[in-house]
Amino acid sequence: MRPSLLNPLFASAAGLPGIGPKTGKLFDRLFERTSAAAPDTRLIDLLFHMPHAVIDRRQRVKIADAVPDRMVLFEARVAEHRPPPPRSKAPYKVLVEDETGDVLLVFFLANHQWIEKSLPLGATRWISGKLELWDGYRQIVHPDRVLDADGLAKLPPVEPVYPLTEGLHLRMLGKAIDAALTKVPALPEWHSDFVTKSPDFPSFKDALTQIHRPPTPEAIGLEQPAWLRLALDELLANQLALVMMRTHMRQTAGRANTASGALAAQIEKALPFTLTRSQVEAFAEIKSDLGEAKRMLRLLQGDVGSGKTLVALLAMASVVEAGHQAALMAPTEILARQHYETIAPFAEAAGLRLAILTGRDKSTARQKVLAALAEGEIDILIGTHALFQEAVAFRDLALAVVDEQHRFGVHQRLALGRKGEAVDVLVMTATPIPRTLVLTYFGDMDVSVLRDKPAGRQPIETRALPLDRIGDVVARLAAAIAKGTRAYWVCPLVEESELIDVAAAQERFATLQRIFGGKVGLLHGKMKGKDKDETMEAFASGAIQILVATTVIEVGVDVPEATIIVIEHAERFGLAQLHQLRGRVGRGKGKSSCLLLYKTPLGETAKSRIEIMRETEDGFRIAEEDLRLRGEGEVLGTRQSGTPGFRLARLEVHGALLTLARQEAQMIMKDNPRLEGPRGEALRILLHLFERDEAIKLLRAG
Ligand code: ADP
Ligand code: MG
Which long-range contacts (CB under 8 A, 24 or more apart) does 683-687 make? Predict the structure, then answer.
């Protein structure tokens, strides 16, 4: 239960000044509070919305000294009204002056009454806005404020500027945040004395106040005390939750797994290739974990195509040999089926009994799988998040492999871990997460890395072309298709509306179909599962040679014969995503190429991204560059998938705080593992404040 102290912060913001029935929708859009699970904007959303700039009203100028193209604030007398002729679309102009010069205020589609009332002839007014020079005259189009002396006195001298959404004005947002700020309770301090003894360490409430009512423009800086404190709060909540989970897993003792390795050896013998050195090492590390009487929590990190699935199979075979069951969970149905297909032939060679369970399996087939699972007649179950469901009961689950972990929350990881007694957990990720982020997302896990790629892989040739050369690309594609090549054609997902994106993919499918006829297939997220499978199978078998797809193919889809990938509107993708997509080719023996089609003109960031893609295939380097270019949230695609990212901390600036937060979290778990006493109380409040409170449940369970 959330401490009642925090209730005001988690209450709906509807009804606050600036948030009416209509504007409420704009707020909900800005804060992505539009789903059934997250319906309304809450006060906490407003308070954690950070400014990115300020308007500084402390500088007041004489008109002659005002610098063009800047926000200025000056006092002037209203000298002349120049309304447009009747029925004209011309702007309403008002000339104002001081003793040094004059400025023309320009209002398009003006409300005449408002102008006459706000700027009466002969009156003195404070005016702020962006001054421009137009034809040698000073002018301000739509001044930001027109105020008398009383009005000016009421305005903050330094006003924060926030990210907005279309239709939402800064003034409305500012008003709402201001109102929210008055409801922030004084909260007990959760940081240790070691941290708070620093002289300019503000309280949580003061930090929020300094950010939203900055006394100086500098006060909102990322490296200023207010933001540093809030970032540290968020990072501590994050690290504490992770350490608590880890501690919980350690406390519940594991089982020593006594496999000799005969089954794994049998699988290895059946492989048409030899394991890479990284694969051998990773498997050895996993085997050693499994053999110990404590629970494994290991991350298997490896670039696309580095052969993680195979390592997972060897690990699963080890627990099966010891008489237990294993499960492998994938984020999508396509992936689950693909894992099944990759694993099936090798599993068969070793006599392993394999089954698959996804959300859409028919009830009779499903019942059969569930019964067999409970009886222990299935050794390895592969599936989607359907594996979490209540009805799924294993006879003796010993190892849970979770693929592409960052798409699942901590919740799910725990849920699967609860399906058996002392389940060992192996998390696989194809995203080469930079070291700073491993800590953040996975916490205190052991890590195995697959660095080398299977032998015989050739480098992928990456080229970038403007979209208007699409004709050349199609011609090149035609030549390759005639030789039997298989190709992906990726259309972007733009967050606005999945339906529109699907429509774009359908349109591209139609144009390519006109050229290539039945050789083209279409795959997108809105298709029925059965249709998706059929399309994937047709592509895998070569019945179709061009697969037009949305980003559903981003993760893990494996057709080694595909050697060309065309990515349309490459400028709309993040680096990590481009890298994942490119990883769909270069998986077999053939020479592969990747064509990035971009829309001109290219922005600076998009240009850098495309250059990096052309320069390197090293996923780790790409991940680091991505972090540098875009900030942490998008490295993992959290913004799209909605996994908890950070709202306040910016790892490119606050990376050092992460280490501090981690040390604090470890100290807390050592000194006060059940979060007792006043400090424990305060820390529980912190976990709730940042919605990391699922970790608190472990205290009761453990
Ligand atoms: P990942 O999951 O890391 O993207 P996979 O495990 O799906 O990679 O492997 C990609 C492809 O490479 C699969 O077709 C797999 O059979 C093959 N593969 C795995 N290990 C090796 C190896 N050591 N040598 C050659 N091919 C391999
Ligand atoms: Mg894989």
Answer: 683/190, 683/240, 684/3, 685/3, 685/5, 685/6, 685/187, 685/188, 685/190, 686/190, 686/233, 686/236, 686/237, 686/240, 687/237, 687/240, 687/241
Mean pLDDT of 492-506: 64
Fold of 460-616: Rossmann fold (3.40.50)
Integer CA distances (angstroms), 44 to 50, 236, 279, 353, 691, in order: 12, 18, 46, 50, 11
Contact 96, 108 (CB under 8 A): no
Q: In 3-state terms, what secondary structure has residue 56? A: strand
Closest atom, ligand 1, to C-alpha of 274: 23
**Most ligand 1 atoms within 8 A of CB, residue of 311, 558, 561 to mutate:** 558
CA distance 323 to 267: 17
58-155 maps to which CATH number? Answer: 2.40.50.140
CA of 454 to the centre of ligand 1 (A): 7
The model's pLDDT over 60-97, given as tens digits with 9 standing for 90+, comes to: 899 999 988 877 899 999 999 999 998 888 899 999 99
What is the Cα–Cα distance from 188 to 193, expressed in whole angstroms? 13
Substitution candidate for ligand 1 out of 278, 310, 340 with most atoms within 8 A of CB: 310
d(CA 8, CA 184): 8
The string of DSSP letters for 483-509 reads TT-EEEEE----TT-HHHHHHHHHHHH
Q: Answer whether CATH 1.20.1730.10 is correct for domain 262-450.
A: no
550 lines ligand 1 (CB under 6 A): no
Q: What is the pLDDT of residue 337?
A: 86
* pLDDT, tens digit (0-9, with 9 covering 90-100), for 657-694: 988 998 999 999 999 999 999 999 999 999 999 988 87
* Structure confidence at residue 108 (pLDDT): 85
Query: What would the mean pLDDT of 321-326 be, rounded to a whole number?
Result: 94
Residues of the chain with CATH 3.40.50.300: 262-450, 460-616
Predicted confidence at residue 253, as pLDDT, reads 67
The closest-lying atom of ligand 1 relative to the alpha carbon of residue 556 is 4
**Ligand 1 neighbourhood includes 254 CB (under 6 angstroms):** no
Check if 276 has its Cβ closer than 6 Å to any atom of ligand 1: yes
Q: What is the pTM of this model?
A: 0.63
Cα 287 to averaged position of ligand 2 atoms, centre (Å): 20
Q: Do β-strands 53-56 and 102-107 pair in parallel, antiparallel, or remain unpaired?
A: unpaired
User: Where in the chain are all domains bearing CATH 2.40.50.140?
Assistant: 58-155
